[in-house]
Design a protein that fits this description.
Elements: H1 2-29, E1 35-41, H2 49-56, H3 59-62, E2 65-71, H4 75-83, E3 89-93, H5 94-102, E4 110-116, E5 121-125, E6 139-141, H6 148-159, E7 169-171, H7 179-184, E8 190-194, H8 197-204, E9 208-212, E10 223-227, H9 229-234, H10 236-254, H11 258-265, H12 274-287, H13 298-310, H14 320-323, H15 327-335
Parallel strand pairs: 1-2, 1-3, 6-7, 6-8
Antiparallel strand pairs: 3-10, 4-10, 5-8, 5-9
Helix pairs in contact: 2-10, 10-15, 11-12
Length: 337
């Protein structure tokens, strides 16, 4: 009798063990058998349209990826999520990764794919007519000090001959997602805004989009995907599949009109109409902000660092190979026609 009971206990233990293994497998890959990726984006913006196209058109699904998207509202928060392993992949400005590496941190995330190649913000003002000389003596809401949009704007102003200490005032103490609200309530004479906020203010508050800042500067390594070296080494197939999906979306965006893109990504911008979203996307198409493929361009990497050095946020250039891993992007372009 004891022998029978012992056998039964062993059988129960075996079943419990198998259940635990099954539950562990499900927690990693999901009940659908797909690999789950925790993707953290720096903010929600039409600027990242190809990413939303990849999600909505099922490109990640084609590669058995279950992408869980969260929005951090700040590159520092996205970087924190990566470093603390609360996110697997981050979409953020390259400057955050460059800055972490410049501090000598070995656990610095590696950039493996590029999404945008120009600044995605627009200069918005209170009157329609504009010349750059109009900025003299004015206050401009420029974004967080040391953030990519603010540094690029500083670089553009210096290129146009402005003395940042005496010619104008840059307001850098307003939270990124509150810049449009602050400007609409009377703070500042000008503001640098991404879409769809820029177009929404133009329509609802009778403000004016004056300049695409992306067209006022050379191409740079602006927004990119990165992950820890540990995650990349452990999950090369996942990174490759993710990059393939992004590349397919980049190709699709290049081949379709602003309205067609707007119809696909509309669920991510519930406060925008199709007409408004189409206008925002056309602004970005005209500004040539989206990369044609995910391969990180070496000159764009150098340009971004030059901007950081000029802004006093970086002392010396970091070697391309220390931060960039192009093998996944190269393979995606090679394999997908």
């Amino acid at each position: 009798m004891k022998k029978t009971k012992a056998s039964a206990n062993k059988y129960i233990f075996f079943l419990l063990s198998m259940m635990m293994l099954f539950l562990t497998a499900c927690s990693k890959s999901g009940s659908s058998g797909k690999e789950t990726i925790r993707l953290n984006e720096v903010t929600r913006s039409v600027f990242y349209a190809p990413q939303y196209v990849a999600l909505e058109l099922g490109y990640f699904d084609e590669y058995s990826l279950n992408v869980k998207l969260t929005c951090a509202e700040g590159s520092d928060r996205t970087m924190t999520a990566l470093l603390s392993k609360q996110a697997d992949i981050g979409l953020l400005g390259s400057a955050a990764t460059i800055s972490v590496r410049s501090q000598g941190k070995e656990e610095c995330p590696i950039i493996f794919s590029q999404l945008t190649q120009r600044d995605g913000s627009f200069l918005v003002g209170r009157s329609e007519n504009f010349q750059w000389s109009d900025l003299k003596g004015k206050k401009i809401i420029a974004g967080r000090r040391g953030g990519v949009p603010e540094m690029v704007f500083e670089y553009i102003l210096k290129e146009k001959g402005f003395n940042l200490q005496s010619d104008l005032t840059l307001l850098t103490n307003i939270q990124f997602n509150l810049m449009g609200i602050a400007f609409s309530r009377g703070i500042g004479d000008y503001v640098c805004l991404f879409e769809p906020t820029a177009s929404l203010l133009q329509k609802e508050k009778s403000l004016y989009i004056l300049k695409s800042l992306g067209t006022e500067c050379d191409k740079v390594l602006y927004t990119c995907y990165c992950a820890s070296r540990e995650y990349i080494n452990k999950n090369p197939k996942v990174i490759q599949s993710f990059t393939n999906a992004i590349y397919k979306a980049q190709v699709w965006v290049c081949d379709h009109s602003a309205e067609e893109i707007a119809k696909v990504i509309l669920p991510y911008f519930v406060d925008s109409s199709l007409e408004m979203l189409t206008r925002c996307i056309q602004n970005y198409i005209d500004s040539d902000v989206w990369c044609k493929n995910p391969i990180v361009d070496r000159s764009a990497f150098v340009n971004m660092q030059n901007i950081m050095i000029e802004a006093g946020e970086l002392e010396n250039q970091i070697d391309f190979n220390e931060l960039i891993e192009n093998c996944f992007a190269n393979k995606a372009v090679e394999d997908i026609t």
